[in-house]
Amino acid sequence: MVEALGRCGIQLKRQAEHEPGGMQKAAASKEMNQPMSEIYISTDVESDGPIPGPHSMLSFGSAAYTADKQLLSTFSANLHTLPGAEAHPDTAAWWKTQPEAWAACRTDLQDPAHAMKNYVGWLKGLPARPVFVAYPAGFDFLFVYWYLMRFAGESPFSHSALDVKTFAMAMLGLDYRDSTKRAMPRRWFDKLPHTHVALDDAIEQGALFCNMLAENRAAARREKP
């Protein structure tokens, strides 16, 4: 399954608008069958609490990027809540301030087992090994890994989860808690929306990561003797 659900077409169109030729480049790369060692799966989770089990993952979106920022495919799903789980009061209060994002994540709900098995199939259908990417990975990977193991019995990521904030810490030379988006240079950010709709945010943060990766690798090449 290589199509995102719900807002996929809109997001891919937006990416193409902000990156002229981006989708065409992705298709050309696939046609040339260029070998890739890994694909970066930028992922965003929307939940109703801080941990899975007592609380639920409401929605998640993943955007599969190559290292050179080609958006190959997306996947997203809105999920039914877990039996017996409840929303955390603080998270429930925050959701009341985000009515549009709340409405977006409560439409076209899927059974978690169905969604996670389809997600595994999508990940395995990509042309290289997946690496989970998130900001912060400590939150998003917690939910995705738990749901994968609980409902699909496996994680195609294994434990390969890359934290964008840690990457920023290394690149900026700052303490971890100071390595926030506010501290990052504007050149790392594309003009993409951050809406608290999972797929929107996954695409936006994936582009951020790819821009950081390109700059980091360019600096490494310059430093080689």
Structural commentary:
InterPro entries: RNaseH-like_sf, RNaseH_sf. This is Exonuclease. GO terms for molecular function: nucleic acid binding. Strand 2 and strand 3 (71-79) form a beta hairpin. The chain has helices at residues 8-18, 22-32, 89-95, 99-105, 112-124, 137-151, 164-172, 198-223; strands spanning 38-47, 57-65, 71-79, 109-110, 129-134, 161-163. The model is unreliable at 1-32 (pLDDT under 50). Helix 5 crosses helix 6. With 225 residues, it is α/β, with parallel strands linked by helices. The protein has one domain: Ribonuclease H-like superfamily/Ribonuclease H (Nucleotidyltransferase, domain 5). It has 8 helices and 6 strands. The radius of gyration is 17 Å and the shape is globular. The N and C termini lie far apart (45 Å).
Give helix % range.
40-55%
Distance between the termini: 45 Å
Overall CATH architecture = 2-Layer Sandwich
- The CATH class: Alpha Beta
Shape by Cα distribution: globular
The helix count comes to 8
- Which value, in Å, is the CA radius of gyration? 17 Å
The SSE string, one letter per element, is HHEEEHHEHEHEHH
CATH topology: Nucleotidyltransferase, domain 5
What ranges have pLDDT less than 50 throughout 5 or more consecutive residues? 1-32
The counted number of beta strands is 6
Number of domains: 1
Please summarize the sheet with the most strands.
Answer: 6 strands, mixed
Strand content: 15-25%
CATH superfamily: Ribonuclease H-like superfamily/Ribonuclease H
Looking across the biggest beta sheet, what order are the strands in? 4-3-2-1-5-6
Specify the structural class: alpha/beta
Query: Roughly what is the average pLDDT, rounded to an integer?
Result: 88
Protein name: Exonuclease
InterPro entries: RNaseH-like_sf (IPR012337), RNaseH_sf (IPR036397)
GO molecular function: nucleic acid binding
